[in-house]
Amino acid sequence: MGDNNYYVDKLEFHNALKEYNETKSQKSYNKIGKFFLSVAENYLNRPRYINYSKDWKDDMISEAVFDMCRYKHNYDVEKMEKRYEEYDILPDPFSYFSQYAFSGAQGLLKSKYADMEILVKLPFIENIDKKEM
Fold first, then answer.
1. Which of 52, 67, 77, 117 is deepest in the core (most CB within 10 A)?
2. pTM of the predicted model, to two decimals?
3. Are 40 and 68 in contact (CB under 8 A)?
């Protein structure tokens, strides 16, 4: 499941998406899921995410894979194949779904930090002396 430049073979990934679109088979869906997981896990091993805990990384990976599954229909197999025929540009679902890994991680971090801000304020609310009210 890897070529020289990436940890996911772009054409194998593209062909799995194409096969799923044509057959809706569980086998191809499972294969796509492995690609999604690989993209998300490896994307989140970038230096930018190195200091996050395993729990946070697992949550980011889950969110990224969820987004990829939810929006896999937006990857246009036929359009990518036309690009290849006309311009000799290889189909690249790897790059396309890497953006979902980034967006999923950023969205989760944004919500977690918002939750943390609320939690930081809670002890102050808890310690308000009720007699002063």
1. 67
2. 0.79
3. yes
